[in-house]
Write the structure tokens for this entry.
Amino acid sequence: MRQIIIIGLGGATGAILRYLVSGCIQRLSDTPLFPYGTLGVNVLGCLAIGLLGGWADNAEMFSPSARLFLLIGLLGGFTTFSTFGYEAMALLRDKAAFAAMMYVGLHLLLGFAAVAVGYGLSTLR
């Protein structure tokens, strides 16, 4: 139960940060038609998980609880795209290039397809 609370606190913090950072970036952009806020959050989340994940893996910098809070909770609430990027990079690091390409390709293909199906279902009467 303690682990779930740690992740939940990190997730709530990450979700609030996503809302604030995305809104700030979007307001700073000149065009409201392109989702710069989401793009900015995803890129920042990827940078953060690369840095924190690298420190956790290579410098043993974080306790298990801190890893749960930061990597799963905070960054998971901020953007799951960071986890996607980190896992794809880990496959490449482990010399599994084909698996990495499949992972990325399937996420894009199945993700877009799921959005299209969900959207289509929402229009049924």
Remarks:
- The mean pLDDT is 93.
- Residues 2-28 form the longest helix (27 residues).
